[in-house]
Write a structure and sequence with these properties.
binds zinc ion; Metal Binding Protein, Guanine Nucleotide Exchange Factor, Chain A; 6-stranded antiparallel sheet
């Protein structure tokens, strides 16, 4: 009986390793730019396979809601004015809903009137990757999480200054981490020196 359990455990470990080994090995020192280049070169629509963090659809399904999975892993689009963040005003950092990498700062969010959260720039140069998207008989630029390949939305060149860009992002791809509201005097830390 014990031997059987051991064999099953070893087999599972082997399957896991063989499934993930190559992806992990490849991603060792991949920079965001290289990832983007690889994504462009591949042109397969499966950016997640070239992103540093790679998980199977089955694993993502366990971590995400049905809509989050559809948008981020199947390149879906939530209906305008239905997402949780299109009208969000709180200050904070918008992270990738899949891998929690910080992607956008609320300071760059603007009212676009589109019904999707819109930003004029990502939080830094490497957080998001872009890729040409020729679906729906349009040429658009898809925006992806550099770390896990999640589909976020698209970027257009009709945004406000200073960048002139409009990152049109699905709420379902994002997880807002609100900034703590600064309190004038904290009860626990506001003890007098003497
Ligand atoms: Zn991600």
């Amino acid at each position: 009986m014990r031997t059987l359990i051991l064999i099953i455990a070893l087999t599972s470990a082997f399957l896991l390793y063989s499934g993930y080994g190559p992806a992990l090995a490849e991603s060792g020192s991949v920079t965001s730019q290289e990832t983007e280049a690889a994504t462009r070169a591949a042109g397969s629509g499966h950016a997640e396979s070239t992103a540093p963090l790679s998980r199977s659809d089955e694993q993502w399904r366990k971590l995400l809601t049905e809509q989050q999975f559809h948008v981020t892993r199947e390149k879906g689009t939530e209906r305008a004015f239905t997402g949780v963040y299109w009208n969000e005003k709180r200050s904070g950092i918008y992270a990738c809903v899949c891998c929690k990498t910080p992607l956008f700062d609320s300071g760059t969010k603007f009212k676009s009137g589109t019904g999707w959260p819109s930003f004029w720039q990502p939080i830094n140069q490497t957080a998001v990757a872009s890729k040409s998207d020729g679906s729906l008989m349009m040429t658009r630029t898809e925006v992806l999480c550099s770390n896990c390949g999640a589909h976020l939305g698209h970027v257009f060149d009709d945004g406000p200054q200073p960048t002139g860009l409009r990152y049109c992002i699905n709420s379902a791809s994002l997880d807002l981490q609100p900034r703590a509201i600064p309190e004038a005097a904290s009860e626990s830390e506001g003890k007098p020196e003497k």
